Amino acid sequence: MFKKLSHGLSSIFKVTLSEKNMDKTMEKLKLTLLKSDVAVQAAEEICKATEKQLTGEKIGAFSKKDTLQKAIQNSIYQILSVENQFDLINTIKNRPNKRKPYVIMVLGVNGTGKTTTIAKMVHLLKKENISMVVAAADTFRAGAIEQLGKHMKKLDTRLIKQEYSSDPASVAYDAIDHATAKKLDTVIIDTSGRQVTNKNLLTELQKIKRVNTPDLTLFIGDSLAGNDVLVQAEKFNESIGIDASIITKLDADSKGGAALSIAYITKKPIIYIGVGQKYEDLIHFDPKWFISKLMGNTKN
Fold it and tell me: Per-residue confidence of the chain (300 residues) as pLDDT tens digits?
């Protein structure tokens, strides 16, 4: 995991830093981050924060092996902790008005693993004794309703659906109405996954959100999508509004830059990460764990 970025950072950590080679070292750090799909703005912010921490340090301290490493770790942590970490389970269980379901709207383009991630979320919440219903509001992609339905059947969870080409906002509304009547805790709304350049998609999503006022709007980002995921996150955040993100396929990612970039661009927390294909392979995102992986820690 993150071998490319870890290897690049490890070579920087070996530098015996001095005032003379500060600029050269920061440039090398920036290039290493950019090669690992870290957004330019995020890479520059990390370098700026790192240099600021080192400024004023005594020259002798620069010879310590961990001085630069700690500064970079702190700079990355600042980006990943743009807001207080969001605890979804506690938020659902302790919502002020328990007569109403907690509504989650899920966004993401085709191929990000959105449907599988929803299934993983259902599995995770059911383990916490949280009741729910899922809305099949992707009424555009052929097979989307059936694919989601297979997962919900395995997970013994009700799926609210209509015919293809039905109004997605109406499907979501029906699911919320059902959950309210049955006194269920949560509604998860699946949405159509087309490219963010599709204006009709963005208009459709805006309507779903306007009509159903979700409590949480989740962006699903594919860590293997490179710079494309940055464009997706930025566009969805500008057009729809993102409250938090889930990063998928992190187990297959050799770079690790996507998570950093999404956190920086959206200024919203990453709450879970996908690390495999099984329902159990959705885990809580811990910035400290993530950074330890970037630093080359192979344990756990």
Answer: 667 777 778 888 777 777 778 889 899 999 999 988 888 888 999 999 998 888 765 545 455 557 888 889 999 998 887 655 689 999 999 999 888 999 999 999 888 889 999 999 999 999 999 999 999 999 998 899 999 999 999 999 999 999 998 999 999 999 999 999 999 999 999 999 877 888 888 999 999 999 999 999 999 999 888 778 888 899 999 999 999 999 998 888 767 788 888 888 888 999 999 999 999 999 999 888 888 888 776 555
List Cα–Cα distances, 40 to 47, 157, 260, 262, in angstroms: 11, 42, 11, 12
CATH class of 3-80: mainly alpha
Residues of the chain with CATH 1.20.120: 3-80
For 160, counting Cβ atoms within 10 Å of its Cβ (0-12 exposed, 13-18 middle, 19+ buried), the class is buried
Q: How many CA atoms lie within 13 A of 80 on its CB side?
A: 26
Task: Give strand ranges (E) for 57-185.
Answer: 102-107, 132-136, 159-160
Is the CATH number 3.40.47.10 carried by domain 88-285? no
With beta carbons less than 8 A apart as the criterion, state whether 119 and 279 touch.
yes
Q: What residues does CATH 3.40.50.300 cover in the chain?
A: 88-285
As a whole number of Å, the end-to-end CA separation of the chain is 11
The residue type at 259: A
Q: Give pTM, 2 decimals.
A: 0.90
